[in-house]
Amino acid sequence: MSWRDRALVVICRGIVKPALTLPLPWALHRHAVRLLTPRTPQLDGMTVTRRTIAGIPCHVFAPMDAAGSLLWLHGGGFVLGSARSYARLALALAQRSGRRVILPEYRLAPEHPFPAGPDDCIAVARELIAEGPLALGGDSAGGTLALTTLADLLADGTPPERVVLVSPAVDLDPSRPTPDIRGEMIFPLALLHRVARDYVGCSDPRDPRVSPIHAVFDNSPPVLIQCATGEVLEADTDAIAEQLVRAGVSVEVQKTDGVPHVWQLFVGRTPKADSAVDAMAAFLRGGTA
Description:
The chain has 289 residues and is α/β, with parallel strands linked by helices. Helix 3 (87-97) packs across helix 8 and helix 4 (116-129) crosses helix 5. The protein has a single domain (3-284), classed as Alpha/Beta hydrolase fold, catalytic domain (Rossmann fold). The chain has an eight-stranded mixed beta sheet with strand order 1-2-4-3-5-6-7-8, sandwiched between helices. Helix 5 (141-156) links the parallel strand 5 (134-139) and strand 6. The protein is globular, with a radius of gyration of 17 Å. Helices cover 38% and strands 17% of the residues. It has helices at 3-21, 26-36, 87-97, 116-129, 141-156, 189-200, 234-246, 271-284; strands spanning 46-53, 56-63, 69-73, 100-104, 134-139, 163-166, 223-228, 251-256.
């Protein structure tokens, strides 16, 4: 493991996880994320524009001569995250896959609990898929929303070309068995319970649009799933992969040791993040799953 990958682990365990343990208002957590998010890097041959799609503000990261689009739904536990905090990952995916990457600013809980988030993401996906070839992706809570969106598109008979998921949360039912968190580098269990409560609200946690482990994925395109070994959502990755395989879907699961949840955000800074994003880009260009 490189010193950069080791440093990331130390920072996550020693700084990020203790900070997330604090029961601060989400507004303060969001402010902290904004302060820690670097400016969007400038890359030759890449453009960054803003566009409203289905009434939702979006950021579009595009290489020259882009071939197709990727709708990426950002993570953040349904309460955090933005196009700005995901700009580095979006630029890397666009540059390496040759697709334009669209990041919607979907509504966040607790101000806008379920179903605001999935409603926004599904609306954007429907408009984009009518425009041309579309791949779908998302990480963590965004992976949850990507699966919800995928199920909706499949029901409409308008599937995307490919799906990339990073550590999706697939079962938000508080009565589920408590996941093993001994290897988790970022998330305290209390935070996960708070996130689920603020997002789900009074809705049924077994609703397939809340917990996509209950959704139907017949006739899905190929799916790539990445997760960190030992992280809190590793069990969710295994569960949704098994469900997809039972539905006849071509699925590839890639697990990486010694990294935190959604380490791909550190693309361009750590070798393991670069390797993961390279694998996603290869899959989006047509690699096997």
